[in-house]
Here is the input.
Amino acid sequence: MFKFLLFVESFVLSPPTSYFFWGFIFYLISRLFGKSSIFLGYLIVIYIISMPVFTGYFIEKLEHKYKIYHFHNAPQAIVVLGGGLNYNAWEYGNVSVSTSELERLRHAAKLHRDTNLPILVTGGDPLQTGYKEAYFMKKTLEEEFNVPVKWIEDESKTTKENLALSNIILKRNNINSVYIVTHAWHMERALSFSQLTNEILYIPSACSSDISQNRSKNIKLTDFIPSFTSFYELKIIIHELGGKIANI
Here is the structure.
């Protein structure tokens, strides 16, 4: 099921592949009804949703509440959500953490040094590759950041399972309040799953990413020109919206 949802997201919904898929569909529809305006309308919509001014607005809506770093003594541990693996990391034995996951681990390392709290990493093998994320997260934290990992959750395939299975480990160790570390644009969805139980309090500690930047309020001409960054932002928006709808 997870692989099917990933296929739908990657091929049918996310750019740039989805542009060709839906472009072909709307082209056939326009030919069927003899109205080129249908295909032209599709092109206009694609252009609008690919503009940085459009994607940047919605990314900012996802991030704005969590773009702050602070810590206090209330939590008892740190939970780091997985963010994917890099299967082409030849200098690290072919498999290592992805760029996205590395950003989360770097944030967790800083948070650990500031609080001295124990860390739980969570991430399984959703693509059934034989490699479990949590072990690479632990390896990276311990070997590259010199930060110990106390607990590993390696069976989860989705954000919802990240939280559900982490809860079991935390309750077993009498932990009732934790920091949750993930990207600012992912935090809202992650926190929605943390509310599945009232036994553990999750406090957001969001990390930045390449797209987490202070955007100028003065709109420029380049804000209307689609770019690789706006495509990436659109993929994130679709991923977060799809995750909410699919409840994963």
